[in-house]
Design goal:
The structure is a homodimer. The first copy, chain A, contains three helices and four strands; from the N terminus they run βαββααβ. By secondary structure, chain A is an alpha+beta fold. Strand 4 of chain A pairs antiparallel with strand 4 of chain B, so a sheet runs across the interface.
């Protein structure tokens, strides 16, 4: 889920899921293909509003996805391919990760 | 505010500020020193709970800072050095940026 060079401007009242992770060294095994596939699937989900993702050379990454409501986040969480990829992430790809589900109260920035 | 290789585990009910930005090319001018200084100042603010920051080689960056409440975010926003740095950011360092202030409703991850 890396290297998406766009900035989303989610509406106040919508939701952000902050996924912070540290990649394990030397365990690539379809990571990039899986990330691309998940990005595509997420973007097709009802309630998906956008995604931003950055990973640096140290393996540290932050992905923020934006959603209409908690129900759309929950539906994406229950998507079979997403659940399978998360299991592989826990077992293979990530040294550590954290997920925060947040409601956007205020939003501003460049146009 | 780059390359902080730690994962914060903010409490549910606390706040996240998501700062997404694209660096302008070839405008360095004390950026790294200012970022280090701001990170130090932020960490000394009342209500500061943690910070994660990643920027990739393309110049795309996401920084998430965690705060006890909206009042502590507002106080940091009004800090003189922070306000000055934001003005320089808008003028010099960033091509685009966005800020989202969010309340954390749910949080989980590796221990």
């Amino acid at each position: 889920m890396d290297d998406t060079a766009e900035l989303s401007r989610p509406a106040e009242g919508s939701y952000a899921v902050i996924f912070t992770s540290l990649r394990r060294r030397g365990e690539d095994d379809n990571y990039a293909q899986t990330a691309d596939r998940l990005r595509l699937l997420a973007s097709q989900q009802p309630g998906f509003l956008g995604m931003e993702s950055v990973r640096d050379a140290s393996g540290m990454g932050i992905t923020v996805s934006y959603w209409k409501d908690r129900a759309s986040i929950e539906a994406w969480r229950n998507h079979t391919e997403h659940a399978e990829a998360r299991a592989r992430g826990r077992q293979q790809w990530y040294e550590r990760y954290s997920v925060s589900i947040c409601k956007i109260e205020k939003e501003y920035g460049t146009p």
